[in-house]
Specification:
The complex is a heterodimer of chains A (313) and B (647). By secondary structure, chain A is mainly α. Helices cover 71% and strands 1% of the residues of chain A. Classes of the chains: A mainly alpha (313), B mainly alpha (647). β1 of chain A pairs parallel with β3 of chain B.
Amino acid sequence: MNLDFFVYLVINTLVVIAVSPLFVSLIKKVKAWTQGRQGPSVLQTYFTLVKLLKKEVIYSPNSSRIMRVTPLVTMAAILVAALFVPLVFVPEPVGGIGNIILFLYLLALARFFMALAGLDAGSSFGGMGSSREMSISSIIEPTTIIVFAALAFVFKTLNIFDMFALTAAAGSPATPTLILIGISLFIILIVETSRIPVDNPETHLELTMIHEGMILEQSGRNLALMELSAAVKMTVLMALLINLIVPFGLATTLSVAGILIAVIVLVVKGSILAGIIGLFESSMAKKRFFQLPSLFAMAFFFSTLIIIIEVFS
Amino acid sequence: MIIELFVLAILVLLSGTLFPLIAASLDRRSVRTISLSCIIVASVLLGVLSIMNLLSGESVFFTLYQPLPEFSFSFVLDRLASFFLLIIAVVSACVALYFTEYIEHITGSTRRNLLCSCTSLFILAMMLVVASANTLSFFLFWELMATSSFFLVMYEYSQLDPRKAGIFYFIMTQLSSLFVLVGIIVLYVMTGSFAFLPLTTVSAPLVTIAFLALFIGFSIKAGIIPFHKWLPYAHPASPSPVSALMSGVMLKIAVYGLVRFLLDVFTPDLWWGVLILAAGTASAVLGIIYALKEHDVKGMLAYSSIENIGIIFTGIGLSVIFTASNLPLLATLSLLGALFHSLNHAMFKSLLFLTAGSVVSATHTRNIEHMGGLARRMPVTSALFFVGAVSIAALPPLNGFASELLIFMSFFSSVAVMDPLFKVLLFICLALFALTSALSAACFVKAFGSIFLALPRSPESAAAREVPRAMLIGPGILAAACILLGVCALQIFAVVGFAVPLPDMLLVSLLLIGMAALTYAVLYFTASREVRVSETWGCGTLSQQASAEYSGHGFSEPLDIIFLSIYRTRTTNERVFFDQKNCIFKEGTGEIRLLKIFEEYLYRPIARQSMKAANTIARFQNGCLDTYLLYVFITVIALILFLGWFA
């Protein structure tokens, strides 16, 4: 492991933790505006996290060790997954870090633990959330892998670092194929981060909730970790989309000025994307759970069509 | 050295087989322990010799006994054989260790001695199949393996279910042997020898017939859909360690057979690969979808074995396709993926079967709906099962992920090089493959959640206690193997001499541990450390009820509905009314039954036709001496005429 890479580890982790609560609040703000409300401050998520850290943790007497280790494992898995997607600076890949399949499965590792923690306390809310989350994640998986295979096919590499290096070198605007893949990635982003029309991140009602249901039993610092890891996951997926479609500003060599510019550019681009997500969520209603498979089937056909066009052209 | 070790292992296993037979009437623990110790010793010998051979890479040929000039019991230990011997060795050692304690907890007095004897014979047979240097001895030991495993399945013969399962298994396994025999005979007709030698004629119709016969034979044994039906019957019926051996090792012997014939005998066509790939993908997807619906823990594991064998066949199919299209690097990559997955599946599936056996012996039920809350009552068993569940759900950094990643990578790289039509096929298979691994994560969240988490759902489950130590050490070794094979996958491949493009899982694991430690440290210094154990929100009830929590069935309900068209239920609804216009309801029955599609549309019709044919033939046997004399007379006349004309 060389020095560049070590610096990358530190920078990437710090940046992702620092900016992700901002994007979460921004989406909430945009949604509030479209509903004619003023909405919470854009720093509200930071305040919430700090408040949660000060609270005590309550465990159900029925829960096992799973409940106690899940927040740590989830956070660790998501943070390692975040290392696979360079936010501001693309170093040379080391030891297969950046492998796109491993990235996907690190997210799955976090999900596996979260779903088990949902079942652990024995409440029907948690179980309901886990069951729905695992079902949804299973049926979106073929689409995700097809989109990733398309990326690997277009860039002739499996490594996200190499992909970003290629897009950063080519500069904007992206090719038509990439824009089509970008649309599929956007759908995956919506599904993976539990947003409308798949899930509603705002409510704890049993009719709508999936992700929120799973973490209903968490409290105190554990809840803070779950919230933060969800925010980090969203930021990482957003960064994947941003750096593939509009890569300008991404630093490829290590310099303080370059990194600073890259951070500012990332915040701007991320805020715009957060605004788009907020508008997208406001423009539609949540779908009934059993209508989701047809939505996913559409996404799947769409992605497969792109690939077939690409393959035969 | 290697030959001596091999012969010694055979002798030790033979004594493990014969000793409990000699002492069959002694219902002593020592008898069984000695026999099982023989298995452990032989496994250690086998493990040492196979690792030596894998590292040196030499192939050792030797003949033990030559009854006929044309036929000998000779063995060859090359890297492929040594690899499968290693699988046999590791799993057998752990299973035997577990068995020493488990066997004392099951009923059957002196019959248990026979169980030890048969287990030893079964392991011996599997070992000799793998080492066989010619097709005829391969077949003979294959048959010995089939027969000894039949006795193992029939252990609880006094109950109805095992008896049915045993007969079903016997028929399927004999069918498998029949197809393998046909394949071997066709090969003999073509080459005039029983040796594993490359065929000179490339694509004659006979070659195709030989391949198809062998493929069907091995598919039946491996449990490829639609020949899979024996697995979900045989596994729940047999004792758990036997299931672990059968699912962990015996299915791999079928994989070994297929790989051996494909590599050494045939020059495969492209469509063979497509056939194997299609069969593998179908088994993988359908296997896991059926596993989701299963509430018998061992039945669920059996279906999941079908899924994993499907994944292995997918790898083999890809390898054949790449070989036929002249891409040797990719072919090696996907074959390595398939073989590595065979090893990994052997580890985590026997681990899961053994721990499931512990759970069943602690709760006295196989239904996961009657378990629950065992994580607090059986902490070590639950941790071991958890390692198995994470491995089988293909999550990093454990071993199931490492081998599936190899297959994923060969899929991903292949789409860049194959011609367009093949790309579309490969993309579809890739999507289904991804679906399989995501569903298996869902399936094992359900399994672990229902068995170990939340509140106990039956009094037996509430009273469950941790199992004795011997029943923890065996699975413990397997769990350690799962972790080691996953974390050090890259290093292990490097030691054996293959450069695979795997990510460095050791680095990823270190990063995971580092991140967790860092998070913990930051929380320790910044966050409140107060912890309280108290009743959490239970939807307004005073305390949590086990009856209110999510059951396994409820957990898989959304997926049940999504895959409704695959499950195919039959709804029957009969009503009787008081009046003629069907207004006033009198009584009625209704039921929704899960259709066993393959059984109803494939197995039963074939069975019916066979019965019909058998009845027709049975008419010749009327018990009358005159008729039989007539048959003899007609036969003699026919022979004379035949010889007169043709000889």
